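Let's practice the habit of predicting before peeking. Look at the sequence and jot down your guess about where helices and strands might fall. Then scroll down.
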Amino acid sequence: MDSITFEVAFTPNDIKNNNTSQVCVLVDALRATTAMITMLDKGCNEIILTDEIYPEINNHVSNVETLYCAEDKSGNIAESAHFGPSLHSLERVDVRDKNVILRTTNGTHAAITLWNKGIENILVGSLRNAKTVMEKAVAIAEGNGYGVTIVCAAREKGNITA
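Done guessing? Here is the structure:
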């Protein structure tokens, strides 16, 4: 490939359905994407994204302890959650060798929206992994003849930009 096209989608809703010829790098202002990277850095087995306020937590399926990480609309720890997606909250919780079900007000919804649109290459970007995630995005794009789209999580379920 001679060149790679880079674009920015200001909301996940700006991505066309079934446009699988791209690599999407999802970025959130701070919480969702940074929380995901931090949990993986701390040894989390798996992060399961959800939009459900009260997801079913079933430890018997995988025999791995599963925790629920969620925030309410004001950014506080959700009532039913074990902890919230803030970096302060993540400092106090042990996620090593555990699964985490994650729900945030914008970032997880954005990732689910991209998945539902048929995007197969979704990478999670944050300031903590910016260089590595962009190197991976470029490698995937070059290998498949794709472009790279930076997708902003936006607010209000992907309908409002900053």
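How did you do? Helices lie at 31-41, 59-62, 87-91, 107-116, 130-144.
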